Amino acid sequence: MEHPQAGDDLLRPRPAGRGGPHGAPSRGASPQVGGGPRASGGTLTATSAARPLVVLEHVDKHFGDLHVLKDVDLTIHAGEVVVLLGPSGAGKSTLCHTVNGLTPIDSGSITIDGRPLPTTDRGLADLRADLGMVFQSFNLFADMTVLENVMYGPVKVRRRPRAEAEEQARHRLARVGMLDHADAMPAQLSGGQQQRVAIARALAMDPKIMLFDEPTSALDPEMISEVLDAMTDLAESGMTMLVVTHEMGFARRAADRIVFMVDGAIVEDTDPETFFTNPRSERAKEFLGKILPR
Ligand SMILES: Nc1ncnc2c1ncn2[C@@H]1O[C@H](COP(=O)(O)OP(=O)(O)OP(=O)(O)O)[C@@H](O)[C@H]1O
Ligand SMILES: [Mg+2]
């Protein structure tokens, strides 16, 4: 079984600075990572940062008459943090769901780490084990403790010995600041705490990529930052992430790239600084005008 480096990095002690552990790309210091596939003529191919992990090509999706994804091309490289922005109904959740095989596409292709999206139930289950997902609603197992929630996937799906799974689960919980709550039941936790456990649980599977779909939008305002902090730490550790969020501070701080969608199409795909200070499209200007504080 293959384990990504980013997952291993999470087990190491955190460095004092905010740059990520050795070997992991540090945010802002690797502009080439966001420059598109082989942006610098192949010089990146020697580094894991250049490995295309998720590749969507000409992806189309309809729901009945509604054309929800229109010829979407998107490549996410290992170690990249891509934040997906766009107005409600743009197709952001649909795009996330196509990547993890929850929503089948009409045409085009999706590959995850070089392999086409599987079509069998078994193949899809394997795929989802490699993709950590944290969505808006808290989806912890209500009848299990926090620790049992985090151990469940490694023991049941990865077939790890319990003792090893427990040790790793405790590391993951410590990482999101939830180790003190290992024996609590989900209902005893705040929404922010539950989302941090959900992140730990996803990480426990050593995912190749983490997908977040508005993980803070159901939270009370005072709990948002604790979840965003855990996500920022994860980003800095070198985890590959696709994040749908309305938290513009996080987007600007943590993203390598901003992908902006409107009506099912990608309108801009650029670095955060350019997107927030000098967006090309009228749609992005309009979107930012509405969402950013004046
Ligand atoms: N299962 C479905 N059946 C029919 N239409 C759907 C389905 N899922 C999504 N849609 C429609 O597809 C469009 C895109 O939806 P999607 O949820 O991907 O948007 P979104 O960008 O995530 O929006 P939001 O910011 O509100 O979450 C919307 O018009 C939505 O109503
Ligand atoms: Mg959505």
TrEMBL record:
Keywords: Amino-acid transport, ATP-binding, Cell membrane, Membrane, Nucleotide-binding, Transport. Residues 54-288 form the ABC transporter domain. This is ABC-type polar-amino-acid transporter. Gene3D superfamilies: P-loop containing nucleotide triphosphate hydrolases. It comes from Mobilicoccus pelagius NBRC 104925. Belongs to the ABC transporter superfamily. Its EC number is 7.4.2.1. Residues 1-12 have a biased composition (Basic and acidic residues). GO terms for cellular component: plasma membrane. Residues 1-44 are annotated as: Disordered. It comes from the Bacteria. It is a peripheral membrane protein. InterPro entries: AAA+_ATPase, ABC_ATPase_HisP-typ, ABC_transporter-like_ATP-bd, ABC_transporter-like_CS, MetN_ABC_transporter-like, P-loop_NTPase.
